């Protein structure tokens, strides 16, 4: 199965008669990209909150000249941080695994003519297409996905 994987162990049991209990265990593997794509179909937006992360916003707004303060948003979701920061004038690169989330950001950035480059892929694939001069790199609420 391609892409970033996650796994769960599902244990079920039944008690057909008396004191007897049957346990069944099975490993379930799922693809992280597909799981997130599913969110768009089954959940009400906003999926990750309607305001940018307060710490991220405080760090970015300390920069007086946003245009010279490029930002990399890794695991950008639907653009909760990317879009407000781009509106402030920061050049934004948004790396996003889920193709549907990436498209959501791309469309909104296009509508507002924002300086957002959406890179749809697993962040671990390469860094060749990334800039070397980011002043801020965000991993907002992404660590549980990438580390464990
Ligand atoms: C909980 S959401 C947080 C979204 C956004 N950072 C925010 O704070 O609103 C985690 C995001 O990280 C993305 N993600 C997880 N692992 C990734 C990876 N290896 N490469 C790129 N994106 C990844 C998921 O697709 C998802 O959009």
List keywords for this structure.
148 residues; four-stranded parallel sheet; 2 domains; 25% strand; elongated; binds S-adenosylmethionine; Rossmann fold; two-stranded antiparallel ribbon; alpha/beta
Short structural description:
The protein contains 5 helices and 6 strands.
Just name the CATH architecture of the largest domain.
Answer: 3-Layer(aba) Sandwich
Number of strands: 6
The percentage helix is 25-40%
Q: What share of residues are in beta strands? A: 25-35%
Taking strands numbered 1, 2, ... along the chain, how are they ordered across the largest sheet? Answer: 5-4-3-6
Average pLDDT, rounded to a whole number, is 90
CATH topology of the largest domain: Rossmann fold
Quaternary structure classification? single chain
CATH hierarchy, class of the largest domain:
Alpha Beta
Structure overview:
- The structure is a single chain.
- With 148 residues, the chain is of the alpha/beta class.
- The chain has 2 domains: 5-42, no CATH class; 54-147, Vaccinia Virus protein VP39 (Rossmann fold, 3-Layer(aba) Sandwich).
- The protein is 30% helix and 25% strand.
- The chain has 5 helices and 6 strands.
- The protein has a 4-stranded parallel β-sheet with strand order 5-4-3-6, with helices on one face. Strands 1-2 form a two-stranded antiparallel sheet.
- Strand 1 and strand 2 (22-31) form a beta hairpin.
- The longest helix has 13 residues, at 99-111.
- The mean pLDDT is 90.
- S-adenosylmethionine binds at residues 4, 32, 36, 48, 53, 75-77, 80-81, 95-98, 101, 122-124, 140-142, 145-146.
């Amino acid at each position: 199965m391609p892409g970033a994987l996650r796994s769960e162990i599902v244990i079920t049991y039944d008690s057909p008669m008396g004191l007897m209990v049957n346990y069944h265990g099975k490993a379930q593997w799922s693809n992280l990209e597909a799981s997130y794509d599913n969110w768009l179909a089954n959940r009400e937006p906003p999926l990750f909150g309607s305001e940018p992360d307060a710490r991220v916003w405080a760090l970015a707004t300390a920069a007086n000249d946003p245009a010279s303060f490029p930002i990399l948003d890794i695991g950008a979701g639907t653009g909760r941080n990317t879009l407000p920061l781009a509106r402030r004038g920061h050049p934004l690169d948004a790396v996003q695994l889920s193709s549907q989330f990436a498209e959501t950001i791309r469309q909104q950035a296009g509508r507002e003519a924002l300086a957002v480059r959406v890179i749809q892929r697993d962040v671990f694939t390469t860094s060749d297409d990334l800039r070397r001069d980011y002043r801020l790199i965000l991993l907002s609420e992404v660590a549980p996905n990438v580390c464990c």
